[in-house]
């Protein structure tokens, strides 16, 4: 099975590539981060200016034009189709109930400074206790529930200061 990739350019252009199309690309390294590329009988000079391998984002200069490019492999594409965000750079400002349940314990108060992974509260749902840990460092802005309260799915539980 061939691997496939989606390349997204900051200009809005999107390209779908697979292993065979990459093998057909005539590219020769001319330096550590620079290449000479022939595509459809046209010559291109390409240079990788910056690379964030974890985020799969690159700044590339092609014939003196600079482009921001993101590369998504098959797993990234599946995650996107499922509507799941990686959340690596996203700031969480609110904790909402993922399911209906009962608040068993609240471990913080308004104004508390919390660190990532500090315990915030415990929600009982389907006879299981679910501990909610802080997704980030921050200050508690509001607590929308009290101990013993029944909550619905999607209900606001805790809000962080921005």
Automatic annotation (TrEMBL):
Keywords: Biotin. The keyword Transmembrane helix does not apply. Signal peptide: none annotated. InterPro entries: Biotin_Carboxyl_Carrier/Decarb, Biotin_lipoyl, Single_hybrid_motif. It comes from the Bacteria. This is Biotin carboxyl carrier protein. PANTHER family: OXALOACETATE DECARBOXYLASE ALPHA CHAIN. Residues 79-161 form the Lipoyl-binding domain. The keyword Lyase does not apply.
